[in-house]
# Entry
Amino acid sequence: MKKHKKEPIKQTQGKIKEKAIEVTLWEAANKLRGSIEPAEYKHVVLGLIFLKICKRQI
# Structure
């Protein structure tokens, strides 16, 4: 059985896509946050981070 070789992704394209994703995520987070104070919003974010860590360990 032959393994398919993955073609290397160009660094410049990867960086551009990464930056675009980052900007999109920040905009989405700001829309979701709305008028919630940062002190309250941190509880939501910390909860999501906790769930992500738990998912990785399973």
